[in-house]
Amino acid sequence: MHASNGNKIGVFEAIAYCIGDIIGSGGNDKVDKNILGLSLIIWSVGAFISIIGALVYVELGTKIRKSGCDFAYLSHVGWNPVASAFLFVATTLTYPSILAIQTMAFGEYFVKGMNDAFDLDMKTSEAAIPRLIGFAALLPLAFINLFSLKKFAGRFQIIVTFVKLFVIVIIIGTGFWFLVIKGKTQNFHNSFKGTTKDPDDVVLALYNGLFAYNGFDILNFGTEEIENPRRTLPIAAFCGIGIAAVVYISMNLAYFSLLTVEEFKASDTVAVDFAAKTLGGFHYAFPFLIAILLLGSMNSTIFGSSRYLFAGAKRGIMPGALKCAHPISMSPRAAVIVEMCVAICISFIGNLEQLLNYMTYAIWMQRTVVQVALIYMRYKKFPVPKDSIQNPIFIPILFLCICIALLVIPVKNASVLVFAKKPLKKEQKL
Prior knowledge:
The chain is mostly helical. It has helices spanning 11-22, 36-63, 70-76, 80-118, 128-144, 149-181, 199-213, 229-255, 261-266, 270-278, 286-314, 333-346, 352-380, 394-412, 414-417, 423-428. The protein is globular and about 60 Å long.
């Protein structure tokens, strides 16, 4: 699929997709059991690892300018069986599961907002109502993805990203007002007191942090629909990670200006609880604002998953009907519709949380194999475009070591494998 220039997204849309996929993509804004000091370290380490990963995927995206991300890269080196296996798992389980969780989280936030604003008693624990509301949001999102990426879905992504950053600025600004002007620093005394000494807890926290930064490779799924990948990919990826790192660290500082450690740990909707303490009547709007920004995460997931499925269909791995694309906009319409339908079906599975835990492990396994493929390409001197980006060889080797460590540690400590105890809650903890 080679979209015309009028349908390719530029730098601003690309940055919006990265921010949308990283912030609120299933990550949370706190690192489970850890208090402030260790949490800030974990967020910083997670950002560093993600930057290393982004460097690798920028190199891959500028050397192999095909849509499909890991599938395209593994196919390029001829590792078709492995590429096909990862493709099947990702397009039938991983990304539909993520989209289903995001969809239900949208519904739960909307229901919470209705309950708070109008004194209703709709039960979010009963999945039917949030699920139906989520579907009502998912269908229009899928619809706009059936047309020009730049003119419709890309512009929508920019709008919801501005809303997302607006909400975040309100939270951070309010927190720093209480922290700096009002002198609410009592929760920062002894920031490392009570820090866990259990290595499993630290690894668990790091997994959660990395899950929150997941999305630095979102543009690699649709490389053929991006203007000037040599310029756009690195700008968008590093802006996304940089903004996410500042947001995660600043929001944790803001929360602790008023919330105690116990309140922070106990809350499933930290942003909403923080707004209720600080913003008076305006806090009633917060669940709706967070629901709106979740639309950006859903839109990013639709973009990535549909292009992944489309790439597999073009290579003959998936049914040929799925390579159907609009002749003008080149939107992979069949793939968009199928991924949406699979997500809806998966949303009825009883234990989505546990499924996503193992699928996230599969993502890191996939990235490990891709690093081996990149090093193999460098060793065999595969022909690449002259203007492609090439990192020093230690960058892919370092990321390979990190990926291997993230695979070995959960096997050694079985309890760590189930690292995201309640991903649905994580989606709610913006």
